[in-house]
Amino acid sequence: MISFSQVTKRYPGGLEALRGVTLAIESGEMVSITGHSGAGKSTLLKLTAAIERPSSGTVLVKGQNVGALRPRAVPYLRRNFGLIFQDQKLLFDRTAFDNVMLPLAITGFERREATRRVRAALDKVGLLAKERANPVTLSGGEQQRLAIARAIVHRPAILIADEPTGNLDAAQAAEIGELFRSFNAVGVTVVIATHDEAFARRLKPRVVTLQSGRLVS
Amino acid sequence: MKAWLWQHLDAIRTTLARQARTPVATLLNVGVIGIALALPVGLYVVLVNVQGLAQPFGTDPRLSVFLALDAARADSDRIGARLKQHAGVRESRFVSREQALKELKATAGLAEVVESLPKNPLPDAYIVLPREKDPGALEALRDDIRRWPKVDHVQLDTAWAQRLAAGLKIARFAVWLLATLFAFALVAVTFNTIRLQILTRREEIEVSKLIGATDAFIRRPFLYFGLLQGLAGGIAAWAIIWAGVQLMNGALSELGRLYATRLELLHLSPPDSLSLLAFSAGLGWFGSWLSVDQHLAEIEPR
């Protein structure tokens, strides 16, 4: 599903975020990427979603070479993913419902079917009752769950989460973990970058550890 | 196809909602565009009206055909009939030598001079209105009539028409110059509006790109915004011109009553109105396209 071979990412200024990383993630796997902050976790996720391009080596997603994609093809690659960020990146100028609608609006989904799917996604994360609420009025845990609803509404094959529990307490983190497990149970590939060890242990994923840009286990 | 249509309708709906959310800014923008367009269009309306008003007062070139002094009434009748049949002549009017003398006498200050003349020095004459107005045809007509028997002299009175034509040409040039300048202003206003919009929607654009929005999808609402704003500006310009003509007509009808004539300005014709709207909408679209093209690439998710 996702494979890295000898991937190095050097940022302008000489910082090497990743050094010769080789990694394969199979379809349906649950993988947790751990390591200290600055170890290259986020870079690894960004390379996967074509937000960054590798300096050398190749990144393959579903057989496509991400580093060589034409800019026009990038959006279509990204539609394979559900992306979840530590800072959620919710839009505060619209309701929870419209936030979740965005990925479907982008792909030009038929309206009635789209509405049905948005409700289903909100229901899945337990926010159906708050569909009319502005995200600003939601708690941290609810905002993260809303971001998850937005990430899964178009039923992506791969879920990518960068520090999904960064701002949450243990109880909220447990809820999020449960959600990830349920998506994985229906065949979604889940990749989570986290330094929350308790969270990672509960999910029992395959653990990949990065240290200063190198793969250590 | 249906999905495509839905996306476009959705973009228009979003755009209108955005414009409605900032009514003051929207109204001011539309007002600026409307006023900017109203200036050249107003001048154009004046131009069209001057052209129209000048017509009955003889913008048309005319020929004065003077017959020989010894021409008998029979000769002049023959020439009159020949003029009537001539393909290049629209209308001809006979002015007898007696009538010409009477008119000359009526001209202030000349009565005594005319009285002192031993005999009438004026010939019979025809005033000829040609069918064609271009200088080449006029000269050909003059040369043709000049060769007829008993025709002494043919004078082409085109100076007045030419002067007016030259004046109108300058005015038309001024209209185009103004239109170009204000078209540029319209593009600049739209460019800036869209730039601000892109900056305030930065987050939305970033998120949309992250979840797989194509550039076309991100551009669409901005392009519609420019198009609709330009269209609204065009409508505002049209309304300003309409109101201006209406006000002028009120004042003119009073003036016309004093001179016992009917004075009235014409409104912008339907085809001209449609061109105005298409032009302003097109420019709005172009301005936002430029802006989007410039600024969208700067926003890439990090």
Structural class of chain A: alpha/beta
β-strand amount of chain B: 5-15%
Tell me how many strands of chain A there are.
10
Computed over alpha carbons, the radius of gyration of chain B is 31 Å
Strand order of the largest sheet of chain B: 2-3-1-4
Uncertain spans of chain B: none
Task: Compute the average pLDDT of chain A.
Answer: 89
Structural class of chain B: alpha+beta
Mean pLDDT of chain B: 84
Give a short account of the largest sheet of chain A. 6 strands, mixed
Can you describe this structure?
The complex is a heterodimer of chains A (217) and B (302). Chain A contains seven helices and ten strands. Chain A has helices at 41-48, 74-78, 96-107, 111-124, 140-152, 170-185, 197-203, and strands at 2-10, 16-25, 30-34, 56-61, 64-65, 81-84, 158-162, 189-193, 206-211, 214-215. In chain A, strand 1 and strand 2 (16-25) form a beta hairpin. By secondary structure, chain B is of the alpha+beta class. A four-stranded antiparallel beta sheet of chain B has the order 2-3-1-4. In chain B, helix 2 (23-54) crosses helix 9, helix 7 packs antiparallel against helix 9 and helix 9 (215-258) runs antiparallel to helix 10. Chain B is elongated. Helices cover 71% and strands 9% of the residues of chain B. The mean pLDDT of chain B is 84. Chain B has helices at residues 2-21, 23-54, 73-85, 97-106, 111-116, 135-146, 159-200, 202-210, 215-258, 270-295, and strands at 62-67, 89-95, 125-130, 151-157. Chain A binds chain B through residues 49, 51, 72, 75-79, 81, 83, 89, 91, 93, 102-103, 105-111, 150, and chain B through 2-4, 6-7, 10, 203-204, 206-215, 217, 301-302.
Short description:
Helix content of chain A is 35%, strand content 25%. Chain A contains 7 helices and 10 strands.
